[in-house]
């Protein structure tokens, strides 16, 4: 297997890079969308049950089914993969962001406003930083999930390591079938764990010392 | 008596589910019913060519629904049969030191992509096991973690003074487990089982890649033939089935919850 | 009659408890050098309440839990009745020892009836007997069976949960009951009630009760004997409450019992020693006019309303009696058990506006009414007698003890002045 990897190392690196790039891009979009929606929900609490229901029902829909639904609109390739991964990545972050933003002590917000911070300033400088650890926990869940969904999206010609898994499947019986699938699977696991580690580090750096546990 | 007053308030609260839970519990069957009716209506009026018609023939679709349900049920049953006893074992005084290790390994395993696991098992076991059982194995491996983790956290979450009270009045260790710890941990365990059900029913849509059947078949056919009606129909059917299974999970959760908690 | 004679002898039922003997019992936890319990020996006579008190970490709970082997002793012997606890199977042993802990520790997924029925079920009682027993016990702890048996613990208040906990401990009629801070989780008024109820139950059942508490007042009120423990469960003193109050064995005990210990002797004198007045009583459903007539003849301004089992339910003023017949009172009447202390009596009187309190005996049955004057008279008598015996016996301990009760009466009236 080692020879197999060495022979195809540049291809492996490209696939790995594409996989991580797809996931990170999707998670960045997802974070922006989720936090924006969560801010909306915080201002209109009546939307909360709806948001939670959407998030629960959304996670129930198998990713393969969503990919099938997207195809007529976005076609084979990268776009479908990105949209599908972004959709799933949004849901855990949304749930955590709602919990996190609402968990900020109302008295604190009132005193921030009382000190003369405008509403957007209070949101950016008080509410978001305090909710950040919870949001980040949602992002970690998102990244783990997205790594697997990105692999499935390779079936509709999405980028990344999933390509090799399907290559292995189509070459069944061939001498490299297992090598392709195994290398890709292990690479996804390793990258997922690495990304998780990076996010933990990011959390340490970006979380205010005052609320770090 | 003054002492009875707080109880009434609590009793009134018990009947009310959260608004979100109510939306999901009532909304899901409605979505599924309406969705399926819409599909059936579309199927009867749509102008389909020969290829599309044969891919969406009712007989084949029903067979695939049945295969999908069977994959989900068998795999989930195995998950419960393995993960719950294992979780119990990992919370007993003599073996609980193993729990962090097992959960750590299981957590790491969760990062493995479902499709990779499925394809690898298929490549390794090709010929030794039928596609069905290979899929079952992959689905069960995938679904064990949430149930195992929730069984452990559920049992660990039982108030230790209740366990001691049980032992103190003369219940044996086994009686405490079955009559106090497990009933009190049921809500958490059931949440894990519901999560596993969702994972399993979703992953089962990939089973058609390894010839294990299931509704993924319609979808893959649609994608390989590149027929929009077939792929959308397949996607809709998979999604409806998944929603239905998740709803069943919710209902089971409600039924299994012991009164009084 | 002095408190000394009154406390243990006021019990009325047959002794159904068993003697507990600890002989040189030691517990060393693994990995710790110093023993948690270091060679304790003591005997708790059958049918008595022994209160274990001491600073936290003194080993009182460990000692208690070794009796039902929730904690296994490292060495030494514990005998209940005439049986070594280690000669019996753990679970079988525990089924014959009641166990009541703080907050009741009811199983939240079981109804009140199921919680109480656990041990009888384990012992293989038949269903009819269990149903009857559950109702009987609920009645005993003053909870209406029809109303409470099918409730879940979370539908009960803290005090009610604790009552059910006591009922569960009594379920299989064990000779010995262990209690670990049983009333620690409830408010003071409920605690006093629960204490009174337990004393009333004990008067009837006469179990051997071992109770851990951190509250010295509770120990003085409840205990036939008090065990005061120092570090590593070394016995500082083990004696009746009045001896401990009157002649503390050493400085540790004196400190622990506290500077206010003369005031604490108010906790030794019981209502049962005070002469009760019989007030006008009325039954639910009686004609109001007749009741009013009777009360006026007696010179009473209020009547005690009793239910069909002689339990006082209300104490309305005559002017509050409206309607043709006496209806079931809605007020939450705080009664005094006849074993309540004068301390409790003063508290209760100050809170109800009658300048007195309704006293109940076994099963909460009406006994009479005690009023403020009767209590202060009794205290004055105690003082007079004490002075007399002090004069006769010189420096005898009893004399010095009661001589101190001069200031306790002052305290009592002060209390009335500030709180009332």
Automatic annotation (TrEMBL), chain A:
What SUPFAM superfamilies does this protein's entry cite?
A: MetI-like (SSF161098)
Question: Domain ABC transmembrane type-1 spans what residues?
Answer: 16-199
- Keyword set, alphabetical order: Membrane, Transmembrane, Transmembrane helix, Transport
User: Which domain of life does the UniProt lineage start with?
Assistant: Bacteria
A Pfam family cross-referenced in the UniProt record is BPD_transp_1
Query: Which parts pass through the membrane?
Result: 20-41, 53-73, 85-109, 177-202
GO annotation terms (biological process): glycine betaine transport; transmembrane transport
Q: Name one GO cellular component term.
A: plasma membrane
Q: What is the protein's major site of localization?
A: membrane
The record's family statement is: Belongs to the binding-protein-dependent transport system permease family.
Q: What is this protein called?
A: ABC transporter permease
UniProtKB/TrEMBL annotation, chain B:
- Any stretches that span the bilayer, and where are they? 21-42, 71-90, 102-125, 131-148, 184-210, 230-249
Its localization reads: Cell membrane; Membrane
Q: Which domain of life is it from?
A: Bacteria
Lipid biosynthesis recorded as keyword: no
Gene3D superfamilies cross-referenced by the UniProt entry:
MetI-like
The keyword Transport appears for this protein: yes
Where does this chain mainly localize? membrane
Question: Record's Gene Ontology CC terms?
Answer: plasma membrane
UniProt cross-references to CDD domains, sorted A to Z: TM_PBP2 (cd06261)
A Gene Ontology biological process in which this protein takes part is:
transmembrane transport
- Keywords, sorted A to Z: Membrane, Transmembrane, Transmembrane helix, Transport
Residues in domain ABC transmembrane type-1?
65-249
Q: How does it sit in the membrane?
A: Multi-pass membrane protein
Q: Which family does it belong to?
A: Belongs to the binding-protein-dependent transport system permease family.
Q: What is this protein called?
A: ABC transporter permease
TrEMBL record, chain C:
Give the EC number(s) under which this enzyme is classified: 7.6.2.9
> Region Disordered: start and end of each range?
384-420
Record-annotated ABC transporter domain positions? 20-257
Q: Which PROSITE patterns match?
A: ABC_TRANSPORTER_1, ABC_TRANSPORTER_2
Does the keyword field hold Iron-sulfur? no
Per UniProt, the keywords (alphabetical) are:
ATP-binding, Nucleotide-binding, Transport
Would you tell me the protein name for this molecule?
Answer: ABC-type quaternary amine transporter
- Tell me which species this is from: Nocardioides mangrovicus
Write the lineage as a comma-separated list: Bacteria, Bacillati, Actinomycetota, Actinomycetes, Propionibacteriales
């Amino acid at each position: 297997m080692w020879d197999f990897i060495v022979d195809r190392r540049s291809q492996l690196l490209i696939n790995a890079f594409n996989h991580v790039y797809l996931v990170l891009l999707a998670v960045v979009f997802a974070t922006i969308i989720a936090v924006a929606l969560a801010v909306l929900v915080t201002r209109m609490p009546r939307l909360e049950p709806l948001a939670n229901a959407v998030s629960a029902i959304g996670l129930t829909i198998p990713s393969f089914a969503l990919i099938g639904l997207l195809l007529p609109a976005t076609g084979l390739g990268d776009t479908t993969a990105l949209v599908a991964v972004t959709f799933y990545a949004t849901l855990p972050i949304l749930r955590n962001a709602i919990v996190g933003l609402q968990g900020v002590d109302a008295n604190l917000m009132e005193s921030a406003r009382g000190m003369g911070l405008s509403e957007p300033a209070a949101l950016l400088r008080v509410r978001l930083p305090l909710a950040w650890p919870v949001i980040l926990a949602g992002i970690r869940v998102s990244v783990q999930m997205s790594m697997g969904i990105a692999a499935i999206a390779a079936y509709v010609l999405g980028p990344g390591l999933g390509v090799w898994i399907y290559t292995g499947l189509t070459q069944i019986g061939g001498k490299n079938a297992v090598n392709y699938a195994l290398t890709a699977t292990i690479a996804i696991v390793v990258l997922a764990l690495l990304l998780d580690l990076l996010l933990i580090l990011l959390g340490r750096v970006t979380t205010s010392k005052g609320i770090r546990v | 008596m003054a002492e009875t007053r707080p109880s009434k308030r609590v009793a009134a609260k018990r009947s009310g589910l959260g608004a979100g839970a109510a939306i999901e519990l009532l909304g899901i069957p409605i979505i599924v019913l309406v969705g399926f009716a819409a599909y059936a209506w579309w199927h009867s009026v749509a102008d389909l060519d020969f290829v599309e018609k044969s891919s969406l023939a009712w007989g084949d679709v029903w067979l695939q629904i049945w295969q999908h349900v069977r994959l989900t049920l068998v795999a989930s049953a195995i998950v419960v049969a393995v993960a719950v006893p294992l979780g119990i074992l990992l919370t007993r005084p003599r073996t609980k030191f193993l729990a962090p290790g097992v959960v750590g390994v299981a957590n790491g395993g969760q990062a493995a992509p479902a499709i990779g696991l499925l394809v690898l098992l298929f490549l390794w076991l090709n010929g030794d096991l039928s596609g069905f059982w290979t899929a079952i194995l992959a689905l069960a491996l995938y679904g064990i973690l949430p149930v195992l983790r929730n069984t452990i956290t559920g049992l660990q979450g039982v108030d230790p003074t209740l366990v001691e009270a049980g032992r103190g009045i003369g219940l044996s260790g086994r009686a405490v487990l079955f009559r106090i710890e497990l009933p009190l941990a049921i809500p958490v365990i059931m949440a894990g089982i519901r999560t596993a059900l969702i994972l399993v029913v979703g992953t089962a849509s990939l089973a058609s890649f390894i010839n294990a059947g299931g509704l993924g078949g319609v979808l893959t056919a649609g994608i390989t033939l590149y027929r929009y009606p077939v792929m959308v129909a397949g996607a809709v059917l998979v999604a409806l089935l998944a929603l239905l299974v998740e709803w069943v999970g919710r209902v089971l959760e409600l039924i299994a919850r012991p009164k009084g908690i | 009659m002095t408190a000394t004679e009154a406390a243990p002898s006021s019990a009325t039922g047959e002794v159904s408890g068993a003697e507990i003997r600890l002989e040189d019992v030691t517990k060393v936890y693994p990995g710790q050098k110093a023993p948690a319990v270091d060679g304790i020996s003591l005997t708790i006579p059958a049918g008595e309440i022994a209160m274990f008190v001491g600073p936290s970490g003194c080993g009182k709970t460990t000692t208690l839990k070794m009796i039902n082997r929730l904690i296994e002793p490292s060495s030494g012997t514990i005998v209940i009745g005439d049986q070594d606890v280690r000669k019996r199977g753990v679970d079988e042993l525990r089924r014959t020892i009641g166990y009541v802990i703080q907050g009741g520790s009811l199983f939240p997924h079981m109804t009140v009836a199921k919680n109480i029925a656990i041990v009888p079920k384990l012992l293989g009682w038949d269903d009819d007997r269990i149903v009857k027993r559950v109702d009987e016990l609920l009645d005993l702890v003053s909870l209406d069976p029809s109303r409470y048996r099918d409730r879940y613990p979370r539908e009960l208040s803290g005090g009610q949960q604790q009552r059910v906990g006591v009922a569960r401990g009594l379920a299989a009629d064990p000779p010995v009951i262990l209690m670990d801070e049983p009333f620690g989780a409830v408010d003071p008024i409920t605690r006093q009630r629960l204490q009174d109820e337990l004393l009333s139950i004990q008067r009837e059942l006469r179990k051997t009760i071992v109770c851990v508490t951190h509250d010295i007042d509770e120990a003085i009120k409840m205990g036939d004997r008090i065990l005061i423990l120092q570090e590593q469960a070394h016995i500082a003193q083990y004696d009746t409450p009045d001896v401990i109050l009157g002649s503390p064995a050493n400085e540790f005990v004196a400190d622990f019992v506290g500077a206010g210990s003369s005031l604490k002797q108010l906790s030794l004198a019981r209502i049962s020693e005070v002469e009760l007045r019989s007030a006008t009583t009325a039954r639910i459903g009686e004609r109001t006019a007749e009741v009013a007539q009777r009360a006026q003849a007696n010179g009473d301004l209020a009547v005690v309303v009793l239910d069909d089992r002689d339990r006082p339910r209300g104490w309305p003023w005559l002017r509050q009696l409206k309607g043709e017949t006496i209806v079931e009172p809605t007020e939450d009447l705080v009664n005094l058990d006849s074993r309540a202390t004068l301390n409790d009596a003063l508290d209760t009187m100050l809170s109800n506006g009658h300048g007195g309190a309704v006293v109940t005996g076994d099963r909460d049955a009406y006994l009479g009414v005690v009023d403020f004057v009767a209590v202060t008279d009794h205290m004055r008598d105690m003082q007079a007698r004490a002075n007399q015996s002090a004069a006769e016996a010189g420096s005898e301990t009893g004399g010095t003890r009661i001589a101190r009760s001069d200031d306790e009466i002052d305290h009592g009236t002060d209390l009335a002045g500030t709180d009332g």
